[in-house]
Amino acid sequence: ETGVTQSPTHLIKTRGQQVTLRCSSQSGHNTVSWYQQALGQGPQFIFQYYREEENGRGNFPPRFSGLQFPNYSSELNVNALELDDSALYLCASSPKLAGDIQYFGAGTRLSVL
Amino acid sequence: AQSVTQLGSHVSVSEGALVLLRCNYSSSVPPYLFWYVQYPNQGLQLLLKYTTGATLVKGINGFEAEFKKSETSFHLTKPSAHMSDAAEYFCAVRNSGGSNYKLTFGKGTLLTVNP
Fold first, then answer.
1. Residue A26 has what DSSP assignment?
2. Is B101:A99 a contact under the CB 8 Å cutoff?
3. Residue A8 to residue A1: CA distance in whole angstroms
4. Cα–Cα distance between A56 and A51 in angstroms, integer?
5. Contact B34/B54 with Cβ under 8 angstroms?
6. pLDDT digits (tens, 9 = 90+) for A24-55
7. Are strands A103-104 and A10-13 parallel, antiparallel or unpaired?
8. Which of B51, B99, B108 lies nearest to residue A56, judging by beta carbons?
9. Which of B25, B102, B104, B105 to mutate to test the interface with A (most CBs of A within 10 A)?
10. What are the pLDDT digits (tens) for A68-102?
11. d(Cα A110, Cα A98) in Å, to the nearest integer?
């Protein structure tokens, strides 16, 4: 059974650009959550997808958007990048919506210059 | 809203000493609580979870945590620290109610282990 995989591992962008981060869920998991972890902070919930529909969102602006595909893989898109978007972006999957354990990938480190 | 507070952003212990990392929660309903560990340049790994039932929860790598409702605490302990335990530790609470099951994390405690 493969775990949660994220790509790319590192990314450098400039302010104003757009970025897409990808996540492959653990096999059999239909729920994906995305978190932003700024340096020295705990992860903060961005949003969650369940069966291809957004199922809850944290305090992030609309320029943060996502998708979940029929195979339950997911994308996080960020438009009009700002310097404060520099962070580690973590994807987590769960075997079901109410699953009490979230399994995390290693994350994508985004640097915005 | 449910939240957790980790007391102490940095804890330093000697190898072989007791590890105690503190976490207090705020919740109006019985919480689902978790401890995760993050090694440098890696994602989060689940150490243990509390849902319902036994208040002493055993996790991986010799860690355990005790749920104390009267103190609203869920502190993480390990009797004897090992060099490989050096990492950042996060306490988290899973929200209950509503339609999503997000985790709310504390700010983390960095554990250093001295030889």
1. P
2. yes
3. 21
4. 13
5. no
6. 998 888 899 999 999 989 999 999 998 889 98
7. unpaired
8. B99
9. B102
10. 999 889 999 999 999 999 999 999 998 876 667 88
11. 30
